[in-house]
Hints:
- By secondary structure, the protein is an alpha+beta fold.
- Helices cover 37% and strands 25% of the residues.
- The chain contains 8 helices and 10 strands.
- It has helices spanning 43-60, 65-81, 133-140, 145-150, 189-192, 197-206, 210-223, 240-256, and strands at 6-11, 21-26, 31-38, 90-99, 102-108, 112-116, 124-126, 172-177, 183-187, 230-236.
- A 5-stranded antiparallel β-sheet has the order 1-10-9-6-7. Strands 2-3-4-5-8 form a 5-stranded antiparallel β-sheet.
- A hairpin with a 7-residue loop joins strand 6 (112-116) and strand 7 (124-126).
Amino acid sequence: MFLTEYCAVTDVGLQRNNNEDCHISLPLQGLWVVADGMGGHAAGEVASSIACNTLREAFLGGASLADAVQTSHKAVLDAADAGVGGAGMGSTVVALASSQDRFQLAWVGDSRAYLFAPSSETPLRQLTKDHSYVQMLLDSGAITPEEFTTHPEKNIITQCLGALDLPEVNVGLFDAQWQPGDWLLLCSDGLTDAVSDADIADLLKQANSVAAATAALLEAALKNGGRDNITIQIVQAPNKLQQRFQQLAGSISRNLR
C-alpha cells in the first residue's frame, strides 16, 4: 500500500538536448520536490540535483521545509564556489511535505504547485506565487492577467537557489489541510509555459487517476511544442488509513535516526 497515491514523470522535451530538471518522490517520508536548473549545459542539472539532494537530507534530518530550502540555496552557492557545475548556476524549487491530514508547500522561483479540488467552484487553484519579473508587474497593476500569460519576459525570475546576490532567499510558504479528493500538482515551467491553466484543469477533470492525469499533461505539453524540460508530479490526498500508516512510518523513521 502506498502511504499516498502519486505519480511523477520528467521529460527532456522536444527542443533540448539535456534535462536540467530534477525531482524526488518519497511517499514514506511524505516529501515531493521539483527543481528546474539553469546555467547552461551540465551546470543547470548540477544545480537542480544539488538542490533536491540537499533539501531531502536537511528535511529528513529534522529541518523545517523552509530551512531545508535555505540550506539548498547555500549548497548551490558553495558548489559553484568550489568549481562544481558552473559559476552563476541556479535552480528553482517547489517542495511538498505531507504529514497526516496536513500539507505544506515551499518554493523559490517559478516552478509551481496547484490544488485540484474537483468538487470546488474553482477546481484548479495556483497555490504558489511566481518569483518573477512579470509577477511583479502584475502585482503592481502594470499589466493585466491576460498580458501576464503572454508577456515576452515571463521567464525572467527574481530569485533562485544559487543567486549570487542573495545571502538568503525569500521562501514562499503555504499551509493547509488535506480535503478528501484533493490532488496537488507540482511542476516545472515546461508544463505551464506550454499548457494553459484552463487546459490543465480540463485534463485533470477528465482523468480517473493521478497516473492518467500525469500522462495527459505530459502529452499536452509535448503536443504544444515541448520547448523546455517538463517535470510533473501529482499527489493525492491521503485517506485516513494512509494517514495512520504515515504517522507510524514517520515515528519509526525518527527513532532510527
